[in-house]
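Researcher: We plan to redesign the surface later, but first we want a full-length starting point. Tokens attached.
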């Protein structure tokens, strides 16, 4: 069907997560990752943060796949490394301290199947250290240039902190300009929740 983003696999969610997939950004993102990432894939976590997405990606790619995970803060890398060690998955992941706009510096020259972003600040850390519009758009552009057919970029976008709305606007302006014949772009947002809940941007390269 035109405009639809196809799933690569059918994934059943555990019962305790079935309601969360409608109300929590992390559950929705993990549902999409589980649907699109397979054993042997080469994938990227462009803002590894507390490591939850990185651990899931490492599980999904299996022993034959690879994950590149980056973050500008050492605290984020340390938390992610600890989670990977606990899960026995560290060998599948390359952790790099860097800003995500330089992501191509650490990628092999091959196609990726998926990239994930968690924008804003690192939970539990200095809220003044946030992702920035120009760097975020550049990182998305770079990863899009390596995204293989059928691949996805999934970005959780927060607007409640200083600079968040500007970053979201810059990202959406860029994304809406993508060629609809090559990419399907969708945005998930909640319209009846209090506060400023995040949005989820999904970019799918058509097969």
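Model: Full-length starting sequence:
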């Amino acid at each position: 069907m035109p405009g639809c983003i196809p799933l690569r696999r059918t994934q059943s969610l555990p019962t305790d997560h079935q309601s969360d997939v409608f109300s929590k950004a992390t559950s929705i993102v993990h549902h999409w990752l589980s649907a699109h990432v397979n054993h042997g894939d080469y994938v990227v976590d462009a803002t590894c943060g507390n490591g939850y997405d990185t651990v899931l990606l490492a599980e999904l790619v299996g022993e034959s796949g690879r994950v590149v995970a980056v973050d500008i803060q050492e605290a984020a890398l340390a938390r992610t490394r600890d989670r990977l060690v606990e899960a026995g998955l560290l060998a599948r992941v390359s952790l790099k301290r860097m800003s995500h706009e330089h992501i191509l510096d650490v990628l092999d020259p091959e196609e990726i199947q998926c990239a994930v972003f968690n924008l804003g600040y690192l939970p539990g850390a200095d809220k003044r250290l946030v992702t920035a519009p120009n760097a975020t758009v550049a990182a998305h552009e770079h990863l899009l240039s390596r995204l293989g057919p059928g691949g996805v970029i999934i970005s959780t976008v927060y607007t409640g902190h200083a600079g968040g709305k500007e970053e979201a606007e810059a990202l959406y302006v860029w994304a809406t300009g993508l060629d609809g014949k090559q990419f399907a772009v969708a945005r998930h947002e909640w319209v009846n929740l209090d506060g400023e809940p995040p949005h989820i941007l999904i970019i799918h390269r058509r097969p």
